[in-house]
Amino acid sequence: MKKHLPKILIIAVLTAVFAYFFARSAKWADVLKYIEGVNLPLFLLLFPFATVHFFTRGLRWRYLLIHEKKGVRFSNMVAANAVGFTVTFVFPGRLGELIKPLYLARKEGIRKGFAIGTVVVERIFDMFTMCFLLGLFLLAGPLFPGLFDVAPDAYGRLRFWGIVGVAFALALLLLIAALYFFREKAVGAIGFLVRPLPERIRRSIIGLLHEFIDGLKFFHSPGNFVMYTLLSFVVWLAIIFYYWLMMFAFHVRVPYFLVVPYVFLTMIGASIPTPGMAGGFDYFSKIGLTSLLHVNADLAVGMTLVIHAIQVLVTCVVGYVILCREGLSLFQIKKMGESEEL
């Protein structure tokens, strides 16, 4: 417990700071009125639509896993996504990113390091895809000023975060490409760095590294690379549609493509390792709604609270049902991830 205390304190402070700025100056009576005024049929549609990304992500994942095992069951890929996001929502530190591949590896008999490598690729492509869509938005904005009514300072912030996202994703892409194409040198360098560790741990690290690099095999398959890229757009265009539906549920009429920068900002907020995306997601969602879409601040608070609650509720219910059917508890699955952390 003591060794995790600094991490827990940092996460608690981050959560509190973002939650404060999100809730600051909100008029809660007005927030409640906006929530009560939601379009009920569209609101109810948000619940089933909250699960769509489990399926689109599972479909995309197949093109990475095929190099390790053909015929991976689609239901297990969907379940792994649901369980991984459930852990991310319940526990801090985004442990679900590790649970997701480990869960699938256990179900399908896939090497753990290989599965982890595919999820690293997935996150890089998520960032690249949203940065590409954001770039299209920034290019289209000046051409259609009447359609994309965004303040200049908001464009500046978007450009900044877009550059940060591209730089981070590009750095990770270059790193994992170097690991794959210069495998022996990379393994040798890592072996040198872990030399002071006990032999058993060194062997475990090197073995996991080899499996991880094997998970990057799709770099040598142009067909899979193209399909994976196209399906990355399917994943994120569906997510954007989900948030667009949320806008209509709250009587906010905006063009579909104008939701792109909002979703990009929520992705930045969701990447902050707070439990359940608390604070980070909420603050960036509010900023996106008010500065990009000119939504009333209290309405923005209400919309964010509702969409956040639906995502957490639906994901956790699906995740819990899957785990219960297998006789597993959330803490058992959490320990599985912690035991694999290096």
Unreliable sequence segments: none
Strand content: under 5%
- Number of DSSP helical runs: 15
Task: Determine Rg (CA atoms, Å).
Answer: 21 Å
- The ordered H/E elements are HHHHHHHHHHHHHHH
Number of domains: 1
How many β-strand stretches? 0
Share of helical residues: over 70%
User: How far is it from the N-terminal to the C-terminal residue, by CA?
Assistant: 17 Å
The average pLDDT is: 84
Largest sheet: none
- What structural class do the secondary elements suggest? mainly alpha
Q: Summary?
A:
Helix content is 77%, strand content 0%.
Strand and helix layout:
Layout: H1 5-23, H2 28-36, H3 40-49, H4 52-65, H5 74-90, H6 96-108, H7 112-143, H8 152-181, H9 183-193, H10 199-214, H11 222-249, H12 259-270, H13 280-292, H14 297-325, H15 330-340
Helix pairs in contact: 1-13, 2-14, 3-11, 4-5, 4-11, 5-6, 5-14, 6-7, 6-15, 7-8, 7-10, 7-11, 7-12, 8-9, 9-10, 12-13, 13-14
Describe this structure in words.
The chain has 342 residues and is an all-alpha fold. It has one domain. 77% of the residues lie in helices and 0% in strands. The chain has 15 helices and no strands. The chain has helices at 5-23, 28-36, 40-49, 52-65, 74-90, 96-108, 112-143, 152-181, 183-193, 199-214, 222-249, 259-270, 280-292, 297-325, 330-340. The two termini are 17 Å apart.
Q: Main attributes?
A:
342 residues; mainly alpha; 15 helices; 77% helix
